Amino acid sequence: MNYLAALEDEVREAVAHAAGSAAPELTYTLYRQFGDTGYRYGYEHPYFERRGRLVAAGAAAMFDVRAGGADGADGTVSADVLAVLADELWRVCDEYTWALPAHEHHARDGDMRRCVDLFAAETAHTVAELIGRFGKQLPEDVTMRCREELLDRVFIPFADDQRPMAFEAMTNNWLAVVAGGVGMAALAFFPGDAKRLAMILKRAQKSLRRFIEHYPEDGGCSEGMDYWVYGFGYFAYFAEAWRQRGGPDLLLDKKIREIAAFPARVGFGDGRFPSFSDGSENAEIPTGLMSRLVERLGVPVPYLATVPSLASDCCHRWPHVAKNIEWTSERVLGKPVSPGVSYLPDLAWVVDRGAEAEFAAKGGHNDEFHNHLDVGTFILRGHGETFLADLGAGEYNADYFGPERYKDIHTAAEGHSIPLIDGRGQLPGAEHAAEVERFADTGRGAILTLDLTKAYEVPGLLAVGRRFTWQRHGSLAVVDRIEADRPMPFEEVYISRIRPTIELADRVASERQSTRGVASDGAAREGEPAVGGPVPDRVVWEGEKARCVLTFPAAMTPELETIETTGHRGELESVFRLRLRCSLEAGGSRLESVFTVERKER
To answer: In angstroms, rounded to a whole number, what is the distance separating the alpha carbons of residues 45 and 236?
Structure first.
């Protein structure tokens, strides 16, 4: 199967590397780093590297079995692969805890060894399935130690201790990942008549039912596409594992089909996705998961170029890799996306995808899962490039999930393409929400009208509304209407990872005052017109294949800021924030920005 060849090559290279190199250590100093400083990645990077070594060895064993024939009948795994697999299993058993330091608050009675968080559940599933698949070929003392660790760390705390666990009060991906991970581990570990298996499945099913109940009827995932893959992926993997063991068919539900169709409804034509909330535009959809959902539920398929690489999931989750190998059908690969618009009324997302220019916008509220202050923001793309961006997830650390969350550019109102009114951004809370006044599929684009008044708390602000008028050939008009009972400053904010240029026309600014200086957050300001100098006529974002041109009201003064920050995995990145400033008089105001996406001449 040629579509798995690149993955197999990568897996075997990773196993060869593991065989000839030492695994990174998880030291006490690294363990305490989060508690001392709030920094997560000092511990998590080596933790996940160790998981990657284990998953690679397991995947190599699967490829060895498949090489034994069309059905892998002889089941033989090479001695070299078994040696690495045994070492990596033993190494995981040596770890102080399978949970992350950032999740210490989930430990009952402060017992981190028996803390069942997301990653302890993932680890339990990986270990249980690997010894279930290959235990007869592994040294007996390795499999026996794995069984002891699984019982002590995960199964006994989950089944025998019926006190509530912290994740069970949640309503997001934790429910599916912890319950699904422990449930799949138990299915791989216990015989069908085991009392503890029944106890685990009963507890897991309660959490999985709660997980689905809290999905909206339109099937949308407000956490973003990465968390659809994570939460719903673990739900679907568990559902199929239980069904194959004679359990109920959890996928036979109308809402499940709506959830399963989410990637195709919002996926752009080149395989990227809207990066709202803590999502990523480069989210990887496991091709095995998608193939099984198509087979079972007949859902449409987003554009999937290839089987995801081993490195595509930095956390190295076993079921994604294993099911990509076992379930991927070539029929889901490379299917083009037809131009069209999707509207998810519960999420209040509009996505127009599949044409050369693409657009997405959201309403919603400011207490969504992995929330950002982003009601009314939008994304504008053309020819495979993103001109107006949603930055997605920032670097996960203590502040990011604490009281300082909205000081991060990724989550803050000033990090999204939404207005600032009287110097104030939107506020957190479910009450700070958009009301959808109108959605229309025009056949050649879409219209979305939002009432954003509740998203702001500004004295004297009576109403604020935003209307998007999108035409698929590449034209977007953003009209903001403001009602106020006093004069106040107003800013349009537009966010990009592409540095724009402010182009000058022959008009003269006779009354505008230069505000050249440094922003309060330390961002450099560029492009302000000097008094009596030329006035910016338009702003241009230049991509490799296309450009995006913005025209705006003459009353607005542009200002460009460059913000240096860190991305989700701690990488350095530059963000470019364009501000269009003006002063509003009391009464009603209308401000229109027009964006045009143009292909460059070849």
So the answer is: 27
* Concatenated DSSP letters of 490-549: EEEEEEESS-EEEEEEEEE-SS-----SB-TTSPEEE-PPPTTSEEEEEEEEE-SSEEEE
CA-angle at 13, arms to 7 and 17, nearest 5°: 145
Q: 3-state SS string over 300-333?
A: CCCCCCCCCCHHHCCCCCHHHHHHHHHHCCHHHC
Give how far Cα 339 sits from Cα of 36, 262, 267, 444, Å. 50, 16, 11, 9
Beta strands per DSSP E along 215-363: 340-344, 349-353, 357-362
- The token pair at 551 is 């025209």
From first CA to last CA, the distance across the chain in angstroms is 37
Q: What is d(CA 143, CA 138) in angstroms, rounded to the nearest whole number?
A: 7
**Nearest-CA neighbor of 257 among 222, 204, 297?**
297
**Residue 393, exposed/middle/buried by CB under 10 A (0-12, 13-18, 19+)?**
buried
Q: Average the pLDDT over 209-235 and give the result.
A: 97
Phi first, then psi: what are they for 34, rounded to 5°? Answer: -65, -45
pTM of the model as a whole: 0.94
**What is the per-residue pLDDT across 386-424, written as a single tens digit (0 to 9) for each?**
999 999 999 999 999 999 999 999 999 999 999 999 999
CA 270 → CA 264, 358, 598, distances in Å?
Answer: 12, 10, 18
Q: Report the pLDDT averaged over residues 248-253.
A: 96
- Alpha helices (H) in 95-218, listed in sequence order: 118-134, 140-150, 156-159, 173-189, 195-213
CA pair distance 243, 252, nearest whole angstrom: 11
> 285 is written with which tokens?
């959809």
Strand 546-551 relative to strand 475-484, pairing: unpaired
Q: Give the dihedral sign, CA 580/582/587/592.
A: negative
Give, in degrees to the nearest 5, the angle at Cα 569 between 566 and 572. 30
Structure token digits, residue 539 = 């702003």
287 Cβ contact partners less than 8 Å away, ≥ 6 residues apart? 304, 306, 307, 308, 324, 327, 328, 332, 333
Residues 6+ apart with CB under 8 A from 153: 98, 113, 114, 116, 120, 124
Name the strand (E) or helix (H) holding 562: strand 557-566
Q: Is the pLDDT of residue 524 over 90?
A: no
CB 468 within 8 A of CB 378: yes
As a whole number of angstroms, the distance between CA 253 and CA 514 comes to: 60
Q: What is the pLDDT of residue 69?
A: 52
pLDDT tens sequence across 42-91: 999 999 999 999 999 999 999 999 998 544 456 799 999 999 999 999 99
Q: For residue 443, give every residue at least 6 positions away whose Cβ sits within 8 Å of its Cβ, in sequence order, or none.
A: none
Task: Say which residue, 514 or 559, is predicted with more confidence.
Answer: 559
- Give the CA angle between residues 282, 285, 287 to the nearest 5°: 140
* Secondary element (H or E) of residue 580: strand 572-584
- Measured between alpha carbons, how far is 229 from 544 in angstroms, rounded to an integer? 30
Half-sphere exposure of 161 (CA within 13 A, CB side): 17
Q: In this predicted model, what pLDDT tens digit does every residue of 346-385 receive, in sequence order?
A: 999 999 999 999 999 999 999 999 999 999 999 999 999 9
pLDDT digits 0-9 by tens, 462-507: 999 999 999 999 999 999 999 999 999 999 999 999 999 999 775 4
